[in-house]
Amino acid sequence: MDQPRYRAVGPWLKARFGGRVAKIALDAGLSCPNRDGTLSREGCLFCDGRGSGSGAAEAGLPIGQQISQAMPRLARRYKAERFIAYFQAFSNTYAPADRLARLYAEALAFREVVILALGTRPDCLPGEVLDMLAGINREREVWLELGLQSASDETLRAINRGHDFSAFEEAVRAAVGRGLKVWAHLILGLPGEGFEEAAETIRRIAGLGLAGVKLHGLYVSADAPLAELYRAGRVRLLSLAEYADLAGRLIGLMPAEWVLQRLTSDPDPKRLLAPAWMLDKPGVLRAIERRMEELDIRQGGTG
């Protein structure tokens, strides 16, 4: 049987925990400094009005209820007995530490939750929050999923990130130094970026002690700032073949020890303007794997 060409998160978790581990996406009703006026009110170029959230917080569902509703469904679908509590919407370390501690405690009250995963920004990790997370990590595993998108400061300015690459470097070192696992969130196909720019991002983050990355393709959500540019014909999006080629070649540059949480985006079909191919997640994964086979690429090196 052929060996996998990259280190996917599912088998890695299954080997560690002895069974399937499913992720529960949570909406804590938190905000973002790029939305609340601290840095901007527009948000990042690609970010929609819900910040990848489900709307559960707006509907008044507390964290505990979100988990208790999701767990039976995911257990049936994936035959999972263990779960990741994934705080996904907006920036999930952007609040006073005591409020965050209460939110996290709601999730960790479920013994089936074995990992606390927090999607956030590198400029939203003050020392007191990192210290709190390090304390939790001694009892339950904590992951930080840090939005970077690109290591190019020029690109970061163009997409209105509100921070530079050095902020990411500092945040990763501070978190890894406290024993936390950190994944970098990268977007492929950003305006002005091709293979060389994305490859430079991989090279610049490879030595920071990351646990791995999450790759996403650039897509247009209906109420993201990017939508206006797309409607005006000022944004070029990658085709499926281009995305598969780009992702496959980049995986070959990644350290062999990295765990790849995602290789493609998972947009809301009701809010997606383009590209339509991104709605076929299994098809995208197959396209990446086929391209890696064609080029004889494996994570950590070619061939």
Short account of what is shown:
The protein is an alpha/beta fold and 303 residues long. Helix content is 38%, strand content 18%. A seven-stranded parallel β-sheet has the order 1-2-3-4-5-6-8, sandwiched between helices. A two-stranded antiparallel sheet has the order 7-9.
N-to-C terminal Cα separation, in Å?
A: 16 Å
What portion of residues belong to β-strands? 15-25%
Whole-number tally of structural domains? 1
As laid out across the biggest beta sheet, the strand order is 1-2-3-4-5-6-8
In the CATH hierarchy, the architecture is Alpha-Beta Barrel
Full CATH superfamily name: Aldolase class I
Number of strands: 11
User: CATH class, please?
Assistant: Alpha Beta
Mean pLDDT across every amino acid position: 94
Reported for the largest beta sheet, the result is:
7 strands, parallel
Number of helices: 10
Unreliable residue stretches: none
Gyration radius, in Å: 19 Å
- CATH fold title: TIM Barrel
Name the structural class. alpha/beta
For the structure shown, list the relevant keywords.
303 residues; alpha/beta; TIM Barrel; seven-stranded parallel sheet; 10 helices; globular
What does this structure look like?
Helix 7 links the parallel strand 5 and strand 6. This protein has ten helices and eleven strands. The strands form three sheets. Strands 1-2-3-4-5-6-8 form a seven-stranded parallel sheet, with helices on both faces. Strands 7-9 form a two-stranded antiparallel ribbon. Strands 10-11 form a two-stranded antiparallel sheet. The protein is globular, with a radius of gyration of 19 Å. It starts with 8 loop residues before the first helix and ends with a strand. It has a single domain, classed as Alpha-Beta Barrel (TIM Barrel). The longest helix has 16 residues. The chain is of the alpha/beta class.
